[in-house]
């Protein structure tokens, strides 16, 4: 038999989109707490009445979800009622959720969640509507059982009473049943829900947790205010050095504070607690804001994946994930190496080479070769200018773009590149392996209502918008630290030469890179290219003792944890040993987030994590390089507005071929 917590999550699973029906984190934790207590009650480990919840048989069940709660109840010095124990157990809500999902994966009911955290049934369960069982008797899908209990006169068994009570407590029947069905089943739901005292306690606490109308009106009043100047607020501090600003204000004010600028005010969330909250609750409370709307307008698009939310965003990510995946670039490593070698051969020898521009070129060419079987070539500067304008205008909240001749040309050239890619792939009709452009066209042909023709030009540029600037910045930082530190360079050079010792490497050899992989991880921590994301609050929520109101502009500074010594000792030191077994400082929940957090985290993470060490390894193997001048210290390009980071134009290197 499955636990009540397992069945509750399965009951609420949206199988098409891989998400649970939306509810606040607080509600979910209360309901999961109730599920655990109900399981202990069914196992005769606790007894409940109107006034108290007391231990019965104290013998552990050998269950990693139930036993910690049972031990808590058995060890209590005083007797408390069900309300108390639901509230207390809800503190374990995140742990209960994670362990429950892990059990469903191990039982073969759910697939292993990927980086996107989507949850899908295994094919066997999805089609058979039954769960595999260890005792030989397959169990019917919980949704089928519960609906039969609601729409027939069958007497529900205790396990079904539990699920009906829990679902009723979190008030999601309206998302599952039509108005007509609710009228028909409403009385039945009410009767069944009253049969369990713990379920009633859960429902009481959930109702108490819902915001009042006054709380929603009061909004963010009372939030601590970040330091700033009269009239301009924190504008200059944020533009000058956002990383230092947000770390300092987090240390001074805590995980939530208000930031005022010339153009708009933000509610800033920062720190581990904020990262974990957004990872769990973004779908319920946040929208991608309107920062990408001006870009859509310039391309005549109705929408773009970066400003999609909810089920549409989930679907778009699912339909296009293979075209920008780790598996795709691993299958094209020989092609990527050839592209890098040709680009390196075209670089001048014994002359200063602009570091950022060189790496951006390598990233754009390998990306376009793999996802579009084409070249970005001379278009890359135009695409970069369009992206920078979009980010700048989105952050400053100025929807009207200045139509300078340079920007008009860049917009036209970016559209021209997109048209070339789309036309070529329309003619090829998947002549090669599936990739991002093919996936986009296939989705349009299958469902033009979901992805209309007007959205194709902008959508086709997603691989460049989503990856070139950020991946190029990190690749440049990786190369800088290797060239700056002779000992690190020697180790990286040796690993790169070993990688190519038998010719062009394969995917397993690239995956086995150690030193270069850890250099990448540390560069991502110290030089996080996109350290903040904007969101709009769509449903008010409580965080760190403050009410964050609907309509607020939210800025999540998810990088702040990267600079905190409690997570990364001596955080300003570049130390690749942080990632060795035994330390693994990046494994702490909610503290290492270079690709963002929540449902909108970088979709090309796996692609980038293969691309970056491969580019640097190939460079080191092909050429001897040195900083020019050797004394150069990495600095940020101040012309790039928050929220982006890139080395400045002073980062240059000289090359000598190693293949002569």
Describe the 3D structure.
The strands form six sheets. A five-stranded mixed sheet has the order 7-8-14-11-9. Residues 211-219 and 639-643 have low confidence and may be disordered. The chain has 660 residues and is an alpha+beta fold. Helix content is 51%, strand content 8%. The longest helix has 24 residues, at 405-428. Helix 26 (486-499) crosses helix 29. Strand 3 and strand 4 form a beta hairpin.
Residues in β-strands, percent = 5-15%
Apparent shape: globular
- Largest sheet at a glance? 5 strands, mixed
Helix tally equals: 29
**Strand order of the main beta sheet, please?**
7-8-14-11-9
Distance between the termini: 68 Å
Class from secondary-structure proportions:
alpha+beta
Report the strand count: 16
Radius of gyration: 27 Å
What key attributes describe this structure?
660 residues; alpha+beta; five-stranded mixed beta sheet; three-stranded antiparallel beta sheet; 29 helices; 16 strands
Summarize the SSE layout with pairings.
Blueprint: H1 4-11, E1 13-14, E2 19-20, H2 25-42, E3 46-48, E4 53-55, H3 66-74, H4 82-89, H5 93-106, H6 123-128, E5 130-131, E6 139-140, H7 142-151, H8 158-169, H9 173-176, H10 179-193, H11 197-209, H12 213-218, H13 235-240, H14 242-253, E7 256-260, E8 265-270, H15 272-285, E9 286-287, H16 293-299, H17 310-320, H18 326-331, H19 333-345, E10 353-354, H20 355-371, H21 380-396, H22 405-428, H23 436-446, H24 456-460, H25 462-484, H26 486-499, H27 507-511, H28 515-526, E11 533-537, E12 541-543, E13 546-548, E14 553-557, H29 605-622, E15 623-627, E16 652-657
Parallel strand pairs: 8-14
Antiparallel strand pairs: 1-2, 3-4, 5-6, 7-8, 9-11, 10-16, 11-14, 12-13, 15-16
Helix pairs in contact: 1-8, 2-4, 2-5, 2-8, 2-11, 4-11, 8-10, 8-11, 19-20, 19-29, 20-25, 21-22, 25-26, 25-28, 25-29, 26-29, 28-29
